[in-house]
Amino acid sequence: MDAPINAHSFLNFLAYAGTGIGVLVLAAVAVLLITPHRELSLIREGNTAAATAFSGTLIGLALPLHSAISNSVSLFDAAIWGAVSVVVQLFAFLLARLVAPKLSQQITNNQTAAGIFSAGVSISVGLINAAAMTP
After folding, report:
1. pLDDT in tens, 42-70
2. CA distance 98 to 7
3. Where are the transmembrane segments (predicted)?
4. What is the pTM of this model?
5. How does DSSP classify residue 124?
């Protein structure tokens, strides 16, 4: 009987998980840098709208990363598709700001509806982005 986990499969897990988490962290930092409001400071202050918006951003980024890793033929392939998904998510993020130009100020003012809208945009684009990554 073969062992369910061996050294090779565990090293692959570490490589893919590390790459996925690394891309997620870099993408989250990119989002934090392009937002006019300071999400982490707002979250520390208890701003629900900022927490909701940023949580949606993380989910929206993680969904296509999941798909990229699941459908990739190699670690390099996963990293490239992960980077593509980040670009698409950042574009959607900027587009949402064009459609709703007061969104950042509303999030700063802790208007929950703005946070929910922002999260919804991120998650819905993330789902479409993930579905589009087919082998």
Report:
1. 999 999 999 999 999 999 999 999 999 99
2. 49
3. 13-34, 46-66, 78-100, 112-132
4. 0.90
5. H
Q: How far is it, in rounded angstroms, from Cα 19 to Cα 21? A: 6
Model pLDDT for residues 63-105, shown as the tens digit of each residue: 999 999 999 899 999 899 989 988 998 888 888 888 899 999 9
Among residues 68, 107, 108, the alpha carbon closest in space to that of 86 is found at 68
Euclidean distance between CA atoms 59 and 4, whole angstroms: 29
How many C-beta atoms lie closer than 10 Å to residue 71's C-beta?
A: 14
Measured distance CA(53)–CA(27) in Å, rounded? 15
The structure tokens listed for 100 are: 């709703």
Please list the alpha-helical segments (H only) found in the chain: 7-34, 39-44, 48-71, 75-99, 103-108, 112-132
